[in-house]
Amino acid sequence: MSSSIQNEKYEEFAIDLVDLPLSIPSKSANIHATLTDASGVINNKYFIQESISASGASIKGKIVISSEKDSYNVYYDTDLSLNKDRLVIHGTNCVPFTFKNNWDETLPGVKRPVTNLVLLMGPSILYRLDHSSIVWKSVADKNIRGTMMKGATTQVKNKLRITYYYKKNFDEGSGIKNPSRIEFSGYDPTSVIYKENLILDIYLQNENYYDELANEVHPLPGIGCPYYLSTSPTPFPELRTDYVHYTMYEYIQGSSTSRTFSEIHASKKRHQALLRLKATLLGVTTEAIYDYQLGVSYLFEEGESCRISSADLNSPGIGSDVISKIL
């Protein structure tokens, strides 16, 4: 159900913005926007690109944020158990954020809570604002980037005013779904430390009825992020493993220290699982290829012919619970 616009009556709503459901009218969406401080107190402009995949059971998204000073990648999933979580990758570090009345972390270098809130929610916040719990009041037309636009405003918990503007060729119902600008003025509902005046300008909003971004919203394997390897029933975010290629050094300490260099290629597509493992230890290189569909392995050693054997419990990725299925 859509939100309503009233000319005389004005009401605030008491729901946290994060609690408003994210509803995408298509299978995927791509949004480009900028976030600036209208008051000029913070001279930092954020460039934001958000990719949204909505073809699965839950909506998944990736928010790429950059400025003159820093950059971040933010990942989210609207599954009920993950809806208030974000995974932020900053350089080679990654940090999970959780919303409990407010965000338990702030983006590195971001000191103001409303800025932090808007960046972590991304420009897709526009899809959350079309909700039945919000009552909007019309405001005077305003010149936005050289074009006169209509607008409407509301207030969150009597602290944060939100105003959006849309082109006049849209009616009220469509305008809230296609705003050219969203303004945030006031305080974070959980804090009164900093008064902020932010402008979220939306320059691109593409929606597609087929999901062309499903592979874009998942993080690539990275350094320093143990959450990829989570054994939790609901790992966040899910690491796509159709194709993986990485290199690693393994140090083994005992009576002497040895170092193994390994290069791994893995592919799992259409039930054809393959793994190629190339390792160098003490100057000797071995290479093995595992075909999990056939349940066989091929071993190549320098100066020797290829050896073929059945996959067993010593094969990478094989456990007692799956060996019988392969063999």
UniProtKB/TrEMBL annotation:
This is Uncharacterized protein.
